[in-house]
Amino acid sequence: MPDPQAVRAALLGVIDPELGDNVVDLGMVRDVTVGADGQVEVKLALTTAGCPLRAQLTKDVELRVGSVPGVEGVKVTMGEMTVDERKALMARARWKVRDNAPETDIPPTTRVVAIASGKGGVGKSSITANLAATLAARGLVVGVLDADIGGYSIPRMLGVDGVNLEAGDDKKILPIERAIGAGRIKVVSMGAMRGAEEDEAIMWRGFMLNRAVQHFLEDVRWGDGPLDYLLIDMPPGTSDVQMGLARMLPRTEMLIVTTPALAAQKVAARAADMARKGYLRVAGVIENMSAFTCEHGESYPLFGAGGGVRLAEQIGAPLLGSIPIDPAVAVGGDEGRPAALAGPGPVADAFAALAERIVTEAIPVVEMTTCTARLLDSVEAALGPA
Ligand code: ADP
C-alpha cells in the first residue's frame, strides 16, 4: 500500500501556476483516499469549474502521485470551491504576495528539473548542457544551474563566458544568456563566480559551498519573461543538496543519468532512492554512453548494455532516452558547441527524441492560462487597495 504521507508530499509538487503556490497550501485538495490496492483518489476543488488549468492540474496530479511507490492508479475528480473557500484561497494568495516574498525568483510556471547521477563521470553535465541546448533550439527559455560544485563544466560546454556575480550589497547573481535558435539559455555556474580578484572568487566559492545550493538559488535573478525549464546539474551521489532542494522546491523533478553498465545502474538506483526520501518525483531515466555505432552500422556496446532499462524497471520510472557514445559529445563540450546542435546524426537525433518526450509527456511545459488570476483581480478590486 502506498504511504499516504508520500502521496500528500507528492501533491506539494503540484503548482497552480497562476497563484504560484502548491495545491495543498492553497487549500485546493479536498480529499485524498489511498486504497490498499494502490488506487489513489484525489479530489481537487477549483476556483471555477470551467478553469482552463483543469487538464493541466489533472495531468500533474496523475504524474506526481502516480510516481509514488506502490501507487497503481490515480483518479482525479474536480469540484468547485464554495464562496468561503474561494475567499480563503484569495486571502492566502494575497498574504503570500504581500508578506511572504517568494524565496526564489523562479517563476511558478517554470518546470524545475534536477539532473542527478549516482557517481561522477557518467556524463551528467554533458546531458544537462545538450538537453538545455536542444530545448532552447525548440524555442524555449531554459535556465541552467550548475550546482555540481566539484566539477563545474557547464559554461564551457555551452560556450558561455562571463561573470555571474553582480557587485552590490544584495549580492545578486545574474545568469549569462545565449540565444540558441528561437530560444535562449540562461546559465548560472559556480565556475563563473569570478570576481575581479581571484581571492574574492575563492571566498565566494567557499561561501557558496557552505550555504549550499538552496541558498544559492535564492540569490539568482532570472529576469523578466518566461523561463520554461530550469535544469539543475546536481553534484554526483546522494547528498544533502537533494534534501535541501526538496525542502525549498518540492516541485523539483529528477532525471537520473546512468550508463549501460549494470554496476552503474545499482549506484544510480541509490540516487533515485534519495530523491524519493525527499519526496521528489523521479520523472525518468536517461542512459548515456549507449552503444557506439560505427559508420558501417555495426553496434559496439562499449560500456555494457541494459543499465538504463533495468534502472527504469527497478525504480518504476520511464527510460526517456539513450544517448550513444560519440567522440563529438566530448569535442563539442570542449569547444562550447553542444553536439546535439551539430545537425542530424545519432547524437542530435537522440537528444531531439529525448527533448520531445520530456516536453510532450514526462515533464510538459506549463501552459499559462488564466482563471484564478482573473478571479484574484476581481477580489483585489472588491477589497480595495492593499
Ligand atoms: P559527469 O557530469 O557525470 O561527471 P561529464 O558530462 O563531465 O560527466 O562527462 C564525462 C566525460 O565523458 C567528459 O569528457 C565527456 O565529454 C564525456 N562524455 C559524456 N557523454 C559522452 C558521450 N555520449 N559520448 C562520448 N563522450 C561522452
Strand content: 15-25%
Low-confidence stretches: none
Order of helices and strands: HEEEEHEHEHEHEEHEHEHEEEHEHHH
- Evaluate the radius of gyration: 21 Å
Spatial order of the strands forming the largest sheet: 8-9-7-10-6-11-12-15
Counting H and I runs of at least 4 residues, what is the number of helices? 12
The helical percent reads 25-40%
Q: What's the total count of β strands?
A: 15
Descriptive report:
The mean pLDDT is 83. The chain has 386 residues and is of the alpha/beta class. An eight-stranded mixed beta sheet has the order 8-9-7-10-6-11-12-15, sandwiched between helices. Strands 3-4-5 form a three-stranded mixed beta sheet, covered by helices on one side. A two-stranded antiparallel ribbon has the order 1-2. The protein is globular, with a radius of gyration of 21 Å. The chain contains twelve helices and 15 strands. Adenosine-5'-diphosphate binds at residues 117, 120-126, 151, 153, 288-289, 323, 325-327, 329-330, 333.
